[in-house]
UniProtKB/TrEMBL annotation:
Name of the molecule in the record: Aldolase
One Gene Ontology cellular component: cytoplasm
Keyword Kinase among UniProt keywords: no
Domain HpcH/HpaI aldolase/citrate lyase: from-to ranges: 32-233
This protein's UniProt keywords: Lyase, Metal-binding
GO molecular function, one term: aldehyde-lyase activity
Family per record: Belongs to the HpcH/HpaI aldolase family.
Classification via InterPro entries: Aldolase/citrate-lyase_domain, HpcH-HpaI_aldolase, Pyrv/PenolPyrv_kinase-like_dom, Pyrv_kinase-like_dom_sf
Length: 276
């Protein structure tokens, strides 16, 4: 399967929709199975999922080999960790709970200017120095296709949205619905008018700045369909764990009913169905 490092970036720059899911399972055949579902990318979340660095590197490289772009969410807005997961095979990096333009600027430096670091990088990012043409060409080639995606999931981020979205080098926005609803004081009320208005504002402003924008839900596809109609073009639907549970509940329920046992058995409210 052919694969170009800038596949996802080109699609986003063209305003096209891209499709992915959250991957939590590191099993040998999993990438092959996922690759057969016509996705563009996989979202690997190291903020909430316990993955060691070696595991992550194997997952990123394997999904690349199957033609899928690995996007990794790091634990915190740490430019050193961002550069590390790029070294491990990630092509896109999502940093959580970003509230300051400087946080995004540092991530851009780590992801799009690596291996340049220190005072020289800081001067370039703040416009007080420029790079020689040869160095600029080298860095663009070295970091070809890399994506910087900001998690917007708090009221302070909403209040500074225009500042955040205009940081040079930002490629997209990932709305964290659960944390955003918590920050707004309306926990998990995803149909609340204030929550809906906030998400619409983020979508509209992101697309105005020609940035990709996505939101993650592990419920039915209808929420994703509704938000795509509002302008979402990074579709991050559900996760392998959630889809497994949902399908198994349906199938076992049908078998139990046909066998005369009735009901769907125990249906716990575990975190597998949460949005992240």
């Amino acid at each position: 399967m052919s694969f170009q490092r800038d596949d996802l970036k080109r699609k986003l720059q063209q305003g096209r929709n891209v499709y992915g899911t959250c991957i939590t399972v590191n099993a040998p055949r999993w990438p092959e199975l996922v690759a057969g579902t016509a996705l563009d990318f996989v979202f690997i979340d190291t903020e909430h999922i316990p993955l060691e660095r070696m595991e992550l590197a194997h997952m990123c490289r394997t999904y690349q080999a199957y033609g899928l772009t690995p996007i990794v969410r790091i634990l915190q807005p740490d430019p050193y960790r961002a550069g590390q997961v790029i070294d491990d095979g990630a092509i896109g990096v999502i940093a959580p709970y970003l509230e300051q333009p400087e946080q995004i600027r540092e991530l851009v430096g780590a992801i799009k200017y690596r291996p340049l670091k220190g005072e020289r990088l800081d001067a370039v990012l703040h416009g007080s120095a420029t790079l020689p043409a040869e160095m600029q060409t080298y860095l663009e080639r070295h970091n070809f296709g890399n994506l910087v995606i900001a998690n917007v999931e708090s009221v302070p981020a909403l209040e500074r949205l225009d500042e955040l979205l205009t940081v040079d080098g930002l490629d997209g926005v990932f709305i964290g619905p659960h944390d955003l609803s918590i920050s707004m004081g309306i926990p998990e009320q995803y149909d609340h008018p204030d929550f809906v208005a906030a998400v619409k504002t983020i979508i509209q402003k992101a697309r105005k700045h020609t940035l990709g924008v996505g939101i993650h839900f592990s419920e039915t596809p209808q929420r994703q369909i509704d938000w795509v109609k509002e302008g979402v073009n990074i579709v991050i639907h559900s996760s392998d764990m959630s889809l497994f549970k949902q399908r198994l509940l349906t199938d076992i329920g049908a078998i139990r009913a046909a066998s005369g046992d009735g009901g769907n058995g125990s249906q716990s409210n575990d975190p597998v169905n949460e949005v992240i």
